């Protein structure tokens, strides 16, 4: 199996690059984000590779980092997500943002991917929610709160405060993060109004 390729960029196609490795041109399929980040033809590049072997073909998928390749594999463990959809998701969200979106149950961010509807986004978030925090760079308390909100276990003042911030125009993940911080400093028995006030201060920082 090919795990990594290092060579010179030969040319680009719509969703692939030809990488010249010692005179052999490998056709490597990449996300739009990866293709945009690669250098001009004739310049050196290194790609982490996922090799697909089928009865009728061998296909190579390339990634700038091993973490991106790991997400490509993880995404395909979700029912209804194949290589094409996984690449599209990674073309829309870099691995860190994808991890944060899943950890925070932000289905809307995942469904921004062309070809990914609400049902598939819901499956990606719900089936990978236990794996995402390991890759995410968000406060574990925020991840815990997102899980509580998602399963209707969050205290009423907390959900009301988040809803109020969303109504003011803040995004759900942004509002949840601010209220999680506010809730931690105000204590478990904080009222909605206090959480909103503290949340707005947090967002203004």
TrEMBL record:
Domain I: region residues: 1-64
Subcellular location: Cytoplasm
SMART domains: HhH1 (SM00278)
UniProt KW keywords: Cytoplasm, DNA damage, DNA recombination, DNA repair, DNA-binding
Location, primary (coarse class): cytoplasm
GO biological process, one term: DNA repair
Keyword Zinc appears in the UniProt entry: no
InterPro entries noted in UniProt: DNA_helicase_Holl-junc_RuvA_I (IPR013849), Hlx-hairpin-Hlx_DNA-bd_motif (IPR003583), NA-bd_OB-fold (IPR012340), RuvA (IPR000085), RuvA_2-like (IPR010994), RuvA_C (IPR011114), RuvA_C_sf (IPR036267)
TM regions (residue ranges): none
Domain Helix-hairpin-helix DNA-binding motif class: 73-92, 108-127
Keyword DNA repair part of the UniProt annotation: yes
Similarity annotation: Belongs to the RuvA family.
Domain notes: Has three domains with a flexible linker between the domains II and III and assumes an 'L' shape. Domain III is highly mobile and contacts RuvB.
Function: The RuvA-RuvB-RuvC complex processes Holliday junction (HJ) DNA during genetic recombination and DNA repair, while the RuvA-RuvB complex plays an important role in the rescue of blocked DNA replication forks via replication fork reversal (RFR). RuvA specifically binds to HJ cruciform DNA, conferring on it an open structure. The RuvB hexamer acts as an ATP-dependent pump, pulling dsDNA into and through the RuvAB complex. HJ branch migration allows RuvC to scan DNA until it finds its consensus sequence, where it cleaves and resolves the cruciform DNA.
Assembly, per entry: Homotetramer. Forms an RuvA(8)-RuvB(12)-Holliday junction (HJ) complex. HJ DNA is sandwiched between 2 RuvA tetramers; dsDNA enters through RuvA and exits via RuvB. An RuvB hexamer assembles on each DNA strand where it exits the tetramer. Each RuvB hexamer is contacted by two RuvA subunits (via domain III) on 2 adjacent RuvB subunits; this complex drives branch migration. In the full resolvosome a probable DNA-RuvA(4)-RuvB(12)-RuvC(2) complex forms which resolves the HJ.
Family annotation (HAMAP family): DNA_HJ_migration_RuvA (MF_00031)
Protein's UniProt name: Holliday junction branch migration complex subunit RuvA
Species whose genome carries this gene: Bradyrhizobium australiense
